[in-house]
């Protein structure tokens, strides 16, 4: 049944529909309402929600729940995610499934999301919804990917996704059979001589006289990461690019405004097209490169000083000029409400980028 729901409530409902039964977080706008809705919903399905003392405790609590095989999640905004980076990195090296939400302020966290700020050679897939219905789908996909690949997965939203109300139908999505949980620590193997270990240092229990072979574990993690990145199909929305003179690339909420601006330009006789990356990692480099093949220029819009533009340039590899038409746009709150997200403003920027 379709209901008018605020994004934060819809995301919480999607988490519950996906099977999430543990959530921990610390209030920070624009993430706070997700925590509040999970606190309301999880007890009704036998789950637990913890309002932690800080983001450090929140990610630690989620770590503990995920180790048992429970579908678990945490989140914050970019500042809070900075505190979680060490634990996210170690979760990846422990091959621990965990979903992390960043309801970001503007789009300054692209590098944090796609490159990570933790230690070691790890990667976390990133999904970037543009609106509430897509957030419902991608939230459930995030849990599936995390469980399938035993790796943290990040959902990158913003103030608009968290606080806009839209009509949605939140139903469980079927992504196939659930993955094997034989790795999980359920207490059944303790003292049996076959105890299991989930650790960023390895999966084999060590005797007092034998140290860890970290090279073996790190190489196994690298192989798992390569398989994960190859196994996740990059997603992007691509339109009007076959005959486009200018192709505009934007992700998340700004992608909706760019799409509208491109359609207005088409009505005015300007051959414009757009690409909206949905997976930021793996980045849809192939889709961007194909869209740019016949264009005179590729324009990139982000609500920051230019971060995704690096990935667009890597995708195009110099075959088409790439120009940045974004810039940091904020109101006095700093929460990511952008005066520049106006179709007329964006239309003029796109038209001005044409040679």
Would you give an account of this structure?
The chain has helices at 7-18, 32-41, 55-67, 78-93, 110-115, 132-149, 159-163, 214-231, 253-267, 285-292, 308-316, 343-353; strands spanning 3-6, 22-25, 48-51, 72-76, 98-104, 126-127, 152-158, 165-168, 236-239, 246-249, 272-277, 279-281, 297-300, 322-324. It has 355 residues and is of the alpha/beta class. The chain has 2 domains: 3-168, 3-Layer(aba) Sandwich (Rossmann fold), CATH 3.40.50; 236-353, Rossmann fold, CATH 3.40.50.920. Helix 1 runs parallel beside helix 6, helix 3 (55-67) packs parallel to helix 4 (78-93) and helix 10 (285-292) packs across helix 11 (308-316). 49% of the residues are buried.
Any chance you could write out the topology, listing elements then pairs?
Elements lengths: L2 E4 H12 L3 E4 L6 H10 L6 E4 L3 H13 L4 E5 L1 H16 L4 E7 L5 H6 L10 E2 L4 H18 L2 E7 H5 L1 E4 L45 H18 L4 E4 L6 E4 L3 H15 L4 E6 L1 E3 L3 H8 L4 E4 L7 H9 L5 E3 L18 H11 L2
Parallel strand pairs: 2-3, 2-4, 4-5, 5-7, 6-7, 10-11, 10-13, 13-14
Antiparallel strand pairs: 1-8, 6-12, 9-11
Output the CATH topology of the largest domain: Rossmann fold
Q: CATH homologous superfamily of the largest domain - what is it?
A: Thiamin diphosphate (ThDP)-binding fold, Pyr/PP domains
The amount of helix comes to 25-40%
End-to-end Cα distance, whole Å, is 49 Å
Radius of gyration: 21 Å
Number of strands: 14
CATH class of the largest domain: Alpha Beta
Biggest sheet statistics: 7 strands, mixed
CATH architecture of the largest domain: 3-Layer(aba) Sandwich
Number of helices: 12
Secondary-structure class:
alpha/beta
